[in-house]
Amino acid sequence: MDDRTGVRVVKAVHGLASATGDPAYISGFAAELREQYSRDSLLELYGRFAQGCGAFDRLMRRVIVRALARACGDGLTVEPGVGFKHP
Fold it and tell me: Taking the domains of the chain in order of start, what are their residue ranges?
């Protein structure tokens, strides 16, 4: 806390972490889903994996969000229960 201004500055944590690269198949899988399914169908498919806690559910959420997004970097984590406000 700065005594003069009363402002507390908190250092970045997540932004300083080095991003881990995704395996090559992730972007290819997302591209294939984007070609094969409409946006509404991808959202419906996402619903199948939205609540699951297993490794496959996490993988599918990650791939489907990449397929839906205009742009998405590596290292995306989509926790169970995440939904879309404006699909």
Answer: 21-68
